Amino acid sequence: MSRNNRAWRSVSALVLALVFACSCSSGSQAPTASIKPAAKSTPAADAFTCASVQGLLGHLAAGTARWSPKSHPFDKAVAAQIRATSVSLQRSLQTARTVVVLRAVSSSAKAFNDVATAMTLKKRAQVNRGITATQAAYRQLKKVCGPA
Prior knowledge:
There is one protein chain. The protein has about 150 residues and is mainly alpha-helical. The chain has one domain (about 1-25, about 40-145). It has helices at about 1-20, 45-65, 75-90, 100-120, 125-145. The radius of gyration is 15 Å and the shape is elongated. The termini are far apart. Residues about 1-40 have low confidence and may be disordered.
């Protein structure tokens, strides 16, 4: 049972990370429809790419907020949303201007594609590995783009 709990915590952490990534950095602010500038650490040339990627991840977090990987790890609708996010991330690579942002977005796209593929193939271990990869890719993305 503890192994299942670890997997559940891992998946929950991924979903929470995606939700928190797209929320305002200050809890007192209401979300706005405008795109926020990227963090100071983001190269100015990639501010748009980082904001777009953060928006994509926020959309995914909202769409998968009620998904239970423990109860429905192979949910077709969620897999489709994850795959669509991966495709959108791939498309956003065209706007990346620096190598660090290009690599971070590319690894995120690959990780999300791997999760969607594992869900489609109904391979629980691969889903878990893919989720771990998305967490690592997200950490790298936050490092180069800054917090949402």
